[in-house]
């Protein structure tokens, strides 16, 4: 692959990316996918606001081990505490997708960059251990998707 960059003050304000190839292949597809992810990431909000007692706390996505729903509320689990979020789980899944989060079960979204190790449990679920010492389970129906994300490089933009 060759990369050519043309910096010129006479160009328009918005950058234009041109890809030249003799056919559509996996490499071209990966480049396009990556550019679209970058564009989405730039437009997306960078922080979450959580509720703690009477006040609000600003959370960076990289501080969160996992997000889960319980008793019709949604919580973010950090290294030391669980904080309530005022968004729905599906809204958080969309927001956090650009920050290496992936669905673990119907009620949990986990941060792939904070995972230390896995253990297979007797019922076919995966037990995921985070850097903070927290643990959560990936249900059988989501294990294959998680494995695919790990193999294809989902996450891994770690610290």
UniProtKB/TrEMBL annotation:
Signal peptide: none annotated. InterPro entries: LytR-like, LytTR_DNA-bd_dom. The keyword Ubl conjugation does not apply. Gene3D superfamilies: LytTr DNA-binding domain (2.40.50.1020). Keywords: DNA-binding. GO terms for molecular function: DNA binding. Transmembrane segments: none annotated. Residues 48-152 form the HTH LytTR-type domain. The keyword Zinc-finger does not apply. PANTHER family: TRANSCRIPTIONAL REGULATOR, TRANSCRIPTIONAL REGULATOR-RELATED. This is LytTR family DNA-binding domain-containing protein.
